[in-house]
């Protein structure tokens, strides 16, 4: 399994646009075979930082999703929403793997 962690710098005056962007991507990632864990928006503290987490069974499935999203009309509409509203100033993407809890005893010393 691969989990993608996105950190967004957003325009706080465009939070509603970013929320719509997030709603669209939750449905799209799930439709493409991933599991979206949600968007996490500013509450207290920084007003311009948001996060998203989603997983795919493996890196190959994630790469297929990325390739397919380029030609998918709903994905392109979501990208266009972000471009048009400028709700996202920048983002960082990280790839994470879960700790294998099942073999914890085999690796302990």
UniProtKB/TrEMBL annotation:
<protein>
    <submittedName>
        <fullName>NIPSNAP family protein</fullName>
    </submittedName>
</protein>
<dbReference type="InterPro" id="IPR012577">
    <property type="entry name" value="NIPSNAP"/>
</dbReference>
<feature type="domain" description="NIPSNAP">
    <location>
        <begin position="8"/>
        <end position="99"/>
    </location>
</feature>
<dbReference type="Pfam" id="PF07978">
    <property type="entry name" value="NIPSNAP"/>
</dbReference>
<dbReference type="InterPro" id="IPR011008">
    <property type="entry name" value="Dimeric_a/b-barrel"/>
</dbReference>
């Amino acid at each position: 399994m691969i989990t993608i962690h996105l950190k967004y710098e957003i325009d706080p005056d465009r939070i509603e646009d970013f929320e719509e962007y997030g709603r669209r991507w939750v449905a799209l990632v799930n439709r493409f075979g991933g599991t979206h864990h949600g968007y996490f928006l500013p509450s207290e503290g920084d007003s311009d930082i948001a996060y998203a987490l989603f997983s795919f069974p493996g890196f190959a499935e994630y790469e297929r999703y990325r390739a397919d999203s380029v030609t998918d009309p709903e994905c392109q509409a979501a990208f266009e929403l972000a471009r048009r509203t400028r709700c996202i100033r920048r983002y960082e993407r990280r790839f994470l793997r879960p700790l294998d809890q099942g073999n914890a005893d085999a690796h302990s010393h």
